[in-house]
Amino acid sequence: MTGTAQLQTYDFAGGEYNFAYLDEQTKRMIRRAILKGIAIPGYQVPFASREMPMPYGWGTGGVQVTASILGKDDCLKMIDQGSDDTTNAVSLRGFFEKTAGVRTTYETSEATIVQTRHRIPEKPLREDQIIVFQVPIPEPLRFLEPRETETRKMHALEDYGLMHVKLYEDIAKNGHIATTYAYPVKVNGRYVMDPSPTPKFDNPKIDRMAALQLYGAGREKRIYAIPPYTDVKSLDFEDYPFEVQKFDMPCGLCGAENVYLDEVILDDKGGRMFVCSDSDYCEERRAEGHTGPMAADPAAVHIGGGKQEETDR
Amino acid sequence: MKAFQSEDPLLQVRNVTRYYGDRIGCANVSFDLWPGEVLAIVGESGSGKTTLLNCLSTRLAPTAGAIEYRMRDGAMRNLYQLSEAERRLLMRTDWGFVHQNAADGLRMNVSAGANVGERLMAVGERHYGNIRATADDWLGRVEIESDRIDDDPRSFSGGMRQRLQIARNLVTQPRLVFMDEPTGGLDVSVQARLLDLLRRLVADLGLSVVIVTHDLAVARLLSHRIMVMRHGNVIETGLTDQVLDDPREPYSQLLVSSILQV
Ligand SMILES: Nc1ncnc2c1ncn2[C@@H]1O[C@H](COP(=O)(O)OP(=O)(O)O)[C@@H](O)[C@H]1O
Ligand SMILES: [Mg+2]
Ligand SMILES: [Zn+2]
């Protein structure tokens, strides 16, 4: 986050642009929204979201946040569903390589800024790192209360009974809290926030994280933030406490336990295995010599080279 | 019905007036409501009953006048000087509001149990088992079978929806309940059952009620006192039996003789 280069221009898609695509005035506006978000952890700050040269579903909110905090010396990691080489991650990384000329990396520990959709890296983030989330729907109360005027009032008055109505319905219908993604949290004992669309598996990582967390929703024009070491509590009932997903087996490739696993189909005969969703974490463990139960399987080795793309949801 | 008794009024209404542009909704309405009292507001369609009820329940700000309410701590408070947070707390703990159209007072896309449990969760109850047990108990009290607890109100009949709305309001043991034509739009036999239920609950819980109705039979069955409205004004007030059996005002006489009843 050192000084941005204001004089140099960058070619992108046949045009000339300022460093990181956005003009400096827009970046200042977004940084003001970010600072306000940091001052009021979990509060959704409205901002004048700009048109970006990509569709909304691609994370334009996260891209604008990243563009606004990016400096020439930053090193960027771009992940989607835990992986660095899905279409979405590849094209957003390419966007910043072209428009800002910054270094990029697959390695979590090397990055100064991690932009993500869906996952938080398994390796704990540090104080000198920032994680930027691409958020599709920032309003956790939207499910039961579609009126924006009303949800704003509910946040202002800390009137959050509805969140528990949603969890009550979950238990009544499924016997347990079935929400697995976008699981609502209370930030710093005050604002209820949607960590969407990360799996609830990652909610404990959000709690008292050393790195600054920034959330950007482009279509909905909202930015929110969680400063380092902020208490973040997942909502629950006394008799149905919050729990993360548990996996019965370790990663097939690297043997890691207590990490988030994706199911991978190996062949058309029903062969399948579970592997780390965080592909960088998995590769690093394998490089260190860790192996999982499927590591010797030829089909698995092929998969381990790079996971197949997820279809866009 | 047996008369209520208590020294201090629960609600004090003074000169409440509401205009819609230059049209009068209600004008210069004043009365006291006592703990345990059921007051019926009667009159033809368009006479200002709903406007007055909405002013009393802080759903519609009056153009002029004052409404004071005795809070649980005994202090009288001007309702329109409460903060939004105080007002909301009042509306979901100490008060109830039963709409004529149950869909206006229910969440149609969540289960009956969640509809009843919502107020409990809003005031901080965080034990699922307790919330469910309380909801189940209240469904029983409004004669809804336990096995409907996970069904949503879209699958309920009109009478059941209305009973569910009542349970949803009473679960926090409010002291004052507002009702706007609670039996309107229901079949006659369904109305009778609902009225019996309301009468029993109001007596058992010692509720204060302000009920709006154009149906004098409803007023006769439920209320201690009646206010007759016409063109936005209260033209006669008195004990229910007295107003219905021996009305003073010519308009009330017409109303009671059912010439005006539709
Ligand atoms: N939202 C409104 N805008 C304008 N006039 C209204 C509105 N609501 C009610 N009124 C008028 O106020 C008067 C009283 O209406 P209302 O309180 O609904 O009577 P009631 O409930 O006795 O049928 C009527 O003349 C009605 O047309
Ligand atoms: Mg009316
Ligand atoms: Zn692995």
TrEMBL record, chain A:
The region annotated as signal peptide is none
Record-linked InterPro entries: PhnJ (IPR010306)
Pfam families, from UniProt? PhnJ (PF06007)
Reaction catalyzed? alpha-D-ribose 1-methylphosphonate 5-phosphate + AH2 + S-adenosyl-L-methionine = alpha-D-ribose 1,2-cyclic phosphate 5-phosphate + methane + 5'-deoxyadenosine + L-methionine + A + H(+)
Q: Does the keyword Iron apply?
A: yes
For this protein, what is the EC number? 4.7.1.1
Q: Which domain of life is it from?
A: Bacteria
Instruction: Look up the record and give one Gene Ontology term from the biological process aspect.
Output: organic phosphonate catabolic process
Question: Its family?
Answer: Belongs to the PhnJ family.
* Entry protein name: Alpha-D-ribose 1-methylphosphonate 5-phosphate C-P lyase
TrEMBL record, chain B:
Q: Which SUPFAM superfamilies match?
A: P-loop containing nucleoside triphosphate hydrolases
Asked if the Swiss-Prot or TrEMBL record annotates the protein with the keyword rRNA-binding, the reply is no
Entry-linked Gene3D superfamilies: P-loop containing nucleotide triphosphate hydrolases (3.40.50.300)
| One BP term from GO | organic phosphonate catabolic process
UniProtKB keywords: ATP-binding, Lyase, Nucleotide-binding
Q: Which GO terms describe its molecular function?
A: ATP binding; ATP hydrolysis activity; lyase activity
Q: Which Pfam families match?
A: ABC_tran (PF00005)
Q: Which InterPro entries match?
A: AAA+_ATPase, ABC_transporter-like_ATP-bd, ABC_transporter-like_CS, P-loop_NTPase, PhnK
List each copy of the ABC transporter domain by range: 11-256
- Name the domain of life this protein comes from: Bacteria
Keyword hit for Cytoplasm: no
Q: Which family does it belong to?
A: Belongs to the ABC transporter superfamily.
The identity of this protein, by name, is Phosphonate C-P lyase system protein PhnK
Q: What is the lineage of its organism?
A: Bacteria, Pseudomonadati, Pseudomonadota, Alphaproteobacteria, Hyphomicrobiales
